Amino acid sequence: MPTTTWNRHHVISLADFTTAEYNTVLQTAASFQEVLSRRTKKVPTLQGQVVANLFFEPSTRTRSSFELAAKRLSADTLNFAASTSSMTKGETILDTAKTYLAMGTDIMVIRHQEAGVPDAIAQEMDRLGVRVSILNAGDGQHEHPSQALLDLFTICTLFDRDHPNIETLAGKKIAIVGDILHSRVARSNIWSLVASGAQVHLAAPPTLLPKLFAEYMYSEKKDTLNGRLFLHWQLEPALQDADFVMTLRLQKERMTAHLLPSLREYHQLFGITRQKLQLCKPDVKVLHPGPVNRGVEISSDLMDDPEFSLIQSQVTSGVAVRMALLYLIGSGKT
Ligand code: CP
């Protein structure tokens, strides 16, 4: 493992991550990627610790890869789903978290449909003076830090597989396309990619990229984002000479109004296809956090084309990156 100091107790947001912290995650994940390439993929690092996955919203990738990551580190894992829990009998979220705390949980991985829930639980744990750590596995439209870190790792390891470094992205053009308004992934990606020195171009219809979004993002870190974050209501300026294109699913479950033309028209205007990629650099790569609606935000053939698509690599990277996060947070507890 890289020698490092890691002082972060919870991971809720990437808004205040430093370059050193990004590189620590990247380099630790690269070490675990090497472990995962061995015949025996398990290390005893978190033996005796308990990792609880508390998911109040559906998930395939995040939940399974956090579970696998914890098991590869030899931690004991607990899996919770709200629909089969005592919350159906009226137990509150905080009381649920305290129940898992009482069982000796060291790290809680939390997904919730409301922004701010992981942070509220972290604050309550801190108030109680207990050493349990909270990892945000996606909260409402707020953030999805582990997804953005695995996206960063997937891209940075293309430049240096063994020693990935965030600064290799300086000057690269990265387009984020689709339902920006509802995307916690996009918000976390913006923090990490802007921190890398990349030029980040957002493209979506005005209903999915309202001016309010710009005001929200720019109000938080105006000086940092100026000159690095660009907004477009057409696709073409974002794709022109792009090195990477990140596509996003239309999150219909979060849409409270009719915000879209037909899916067919949306695909024509903002769907990523082989033909539209001709605007980008010749070696452009395409990412998608999943789950994918084939033929809407990305054409089905492009999604499956290993020359362009990094979608499967993202899923693979997720295990190593989540091992890195659990290790960095958990190793201070033993
Ligand atoms: N990217 C992502 O969060 O996928 P899941 O909802 O399947 O976890």
From TrEMBL:
Pathway terms, separated by semicolons: Pyrimidine metabolism; UMP biosynthesis via de novo pathway; (S)-dihydroorotate from bicarbonate: step 2/3
Parts forming coiled coils: none
EC class: transferase
Ranges where the Aspartate/ornithine carbamoyltransferase carbamoyl-P binding domain occurs: 10-155
Function: Catalyzes the condensation of carbamoyl phosphate and aspartate to form carbamoyl aspartate and inorganic phosphate, the committed step in the de novo pyrimidine nucleotide biosynthesis pathway.
Protein family (similarity comment): Belongs to the aspartate/ornithine carbamoyltransferase superfamily. ATCase family.
Protein name (Swiss-Prot/TrEMBL): Aspartate carbamoyltransferase
Species for this entry: Nostoc spongiaeforme FACHB-130
Gene that encodes the chain: pyrB
